[in-house]
Amino acid sequence: MNQHNTNVFDAVVVGAGFSGLYMLHRLREAGYSVRVYEAGEDIGGTWYWNRYPGARCDIESIYYNYTFSEEILNEWTWSSRYAEQPEILNYINFVADKLDLRRDIQFNTRITAARYNEQNRNWEIGMEDGTQVTAEYFITALGCLSASNIPKFKGLDSFKKEVYHTGRWPQEKVDFSGKQVGVIGTGSSGIQAIPVIAKEAGHLTVFQRTPQYSCPAQNHPYDSEVINETRQNYAEIKQLMRYSMHGVPSAPRMKSALEDSPEERERLYEKAWQEGGLFTLTYNYNDIGILPEANETAATFIRSKIKKIVQDPEVAQKLMPTYYYATKRPIIDTNYFETYNRENVSLIDIKAEPITEITPNGIKTTDKEYELDVLVFATGFDAMTGPLFKIDIRGKNDVSLKEKWEDGADLKTYLGLSTSGFPNMFMLTGPQSPSVLSNMMVSIEQHVEWVADCIDYLREHHLEAFEATIEAEEFWSQQCQAIADMSLLTKTDSWYMGANIEGKPRRFLAFSGGVGLYRLICDDVAARGYEGFTSLLSSNGTDESLVKEGFFKADIDPQAWFVLKQLEATGAPPMESLTPDQARKSADFQLLAGAPEEVETVINRTIPLADGEITVRIYTPASEGPLPALVYYHGGGWVIGNLDTVDVPCRMLANRARCVVVSVDYRLAPEYKFPTATEDAYAAVKWVAENAESIRVDPDRIAVGGDSAGGNLAAVVALMARDRKGPSLVYQMLIYPVTNHSYDTESYNENAEGYFLTKNTMVWFWNHYLRDEQDGKNPYASPLLADDVRGLPPALVITAGYDPLRDEGEAYAERLKTAGVPVELTRYDGMIHGFFWMPGVLAEAHYGINQAANALSRAFHVV
Ligand code: NAP
């Protein structure tokens, strides 16, 4: 450990806010020499600089503190639900004193440059005053929102009186009494400051660009009961926070906003409004951030509240937000909308009346000049990357971070903690980490602990020059964007997207999969020897590169990978450990399917069989005259699955291929073993052909299709129809079909587990389906074994790269081709089994469904 030379440290940490302080503590406790540099006069970071009137936290205080020390937890008592800035700063000071942190912090020192020395494998870190130190590890603890943004208004510097930015508020109290005050900006900071300033100012003019959704904080003092109960249960609370979505000990209710009646929704939203809190309203449902229609229910509710609170209807109208709710950081307030009922407050909509310049006396808009004594910029921050770019950070080959990420290139990190080309540099709460979307304290503790453990590991294993691989950061960055794209987050211009800063490249700047999932991933990376990173043996060893293989497959689709991780995180038992009934109940994948689209008519009806009846669901798009038909069989290994599982793709196929889709609820195994499902499937196609007219179907244009076990049934029905001289089929659409009772393909080996459908589950399915081994050799169970596949209808075969069934689907396509059957075969390389019915979360499901619909259209000649 470097402990003697005052210019050489094991680690240099930049920033003495919550993350820098904990990093110092952790590393120092582990015996490393650490120096923290802080530009401010004192500790506190965000809470040191943001001392504007009304500043308080939007996470409940009892969850917004360090949790690593029980002693600290027990010795500190928060006064109210949402602590004010001075109280939070007091808390930070209390911790710093208790842990004696100040002795290793150098204040009033701005780091201006940090350069990686490849020869010495360390960082040379330079200060504003020209001093330089070196350290093996360079750790940025800069905060995500510390580079304040003052828009470049014309005449900005000409204003003669007082000017402030909320994020750089002076230590001394600002006196607003009797003054003409102007506030530009109505984000979280503006919305907190405006009600407080309004009470004191002579007149307050708010210059608003985008109206905001805000809910009441319902702040109140804590009573001792809450504090005691929290203390007693903190171990459990901590676990809940750590494995949650946003770092708070609660979670969204697993229900769609569209499932409740408008009255029930209203009741729940009203209850949330009265209760207050950052996530209370959105957590009523799990799709407010995903489905526009669900989102609109919450947005409409908040707008109705604004209308009720604000007395002047014109002002109320100006305050009505229209973007998707919660796609900017949700805001909680104390009397924000009420403030516009005050005589001394006016609201200027600067979209209607743009600011043209700042003048010596105030703000000039296209309509008039507003004279001001005080001008407050509540205009936010150059978030996430801004603070990093303020330091000239240079990695290998003297490439700067800014060049790497912005100048013609793209932001890329691995886990938001590291970026390739910058060895031994760690970013706490960096871009592409979940930090800004969460309770920051939970993210901070996770980051610091992961980094500290990583440094221990490197030392123990004599590893140096630790950096992310290009492949790993490429993957992670795609991942961050893809996950965000699944939600509404990327549909709004926000600082999460870099949209608040002129010229800043647009892309989603955080990991939006939640802190729990993020923690699991980071732990996984560490447990596998820091996969996705490279390092070199230390000087007494050789220069042999220890490149760790990625734990992920670089070419798996990031959205599919995320689905897998999410399913893994549910901890659901493997299907084969359940009874068929339990498996049917547990397999509810509605969220993966997404919102069902409208089809002109959708009806369920029963159709007769020789020995009973089954249900079919008939989707008919708007159209005149007889339509072609697709008879569709759902998947589920002949054991699970039902009409609902494939409701969304059936609707999409009906609308896109302009055909009637008849989805068949064939009887399931093990109650009904082979060949019941095949006979039911065949009976359904016969019924459609014989009753075509009654369901507006053209009997000469019938196709069969299905996915997985349903693909098997479709292929088998095509064989049966040929063999039995039954209905003449124009097409077979086989989506990752089961074609052979065998587990010996390469794809079974490669994808036996970890990709949704496992080999063991397939064995379980087959065992329930077949009466005996002999059945498995029957071509109506294993169509690949059919003696002759000539004379079958043309086929579309779609397979997925990460699917045990990939090779048997492709083998069947090859057999058909060899026998002269026209075949369109497409492998969706990055996809997993089941993707066809996951359009709610996978873009490729849309491509697959569109491809199938186009192929059907061509087969039906209705293009
Ligand atoms: P912000 O959310 O980025 O809001 C900035 C405001 O300034 C917006 O109303 C924005 O309008 C406006 N603005 C920006 N550029 C402008 C321009 N050129 N002309 C006119 N208006 C302009 O910043 P913030 O309020 O400081 O909050 C930033 C983040 O800090 C929050 O999202 C939150 O994460 C955190 N924060 C938390 C708390 C808390 O814990 N309670 C308090 C404060 C801040 P547009 O919307 O049109 O861009």
Give a quick rundown of the structure.
This protein is of the alpha/beta class and 863 residues long.
What are the defining features of this structure?
single chain, binds NADP nicotinamide-adenine-dinucleotide phosphate, 863 residues, 33% helix, 27 helices, eight-stranded mixed sheet, alpha/beta
Give a structural overview.
The chain is an alpha/beta fold and 863 residues long. The radius of gyration is 31 Å and the shape is globular. Mean pLDDT is 93; it is low at 541-552. Bound molecules: NADP nicotinamide-adenine-dinucleotide phosphate.
The main β sheet shows up as: 8 strands, mixed
Low-confidence stretches: 541-552
Radius of gyration from the CA trace?
A: 31 Å
What distance lies between the first and last C-alpha atoms, to the nearest angstrom? Answer: 73 Å
Q: Structural class, from helix and strand content?
A: alpha/beta
Overall shape: globular
The helix content, as a percent range, equals: 25-40%
Query: Which molecules are bound besides the chains?
Result: NADP nicotinamide-adenine-dinucleotide phosphate
What is the number of beta strands? 28
Please work out how many helical segments DSSP would assign: 27
Instruction: Calculate the mean pLDDT score and round it.
Output: 93
Strand content: 15-25%
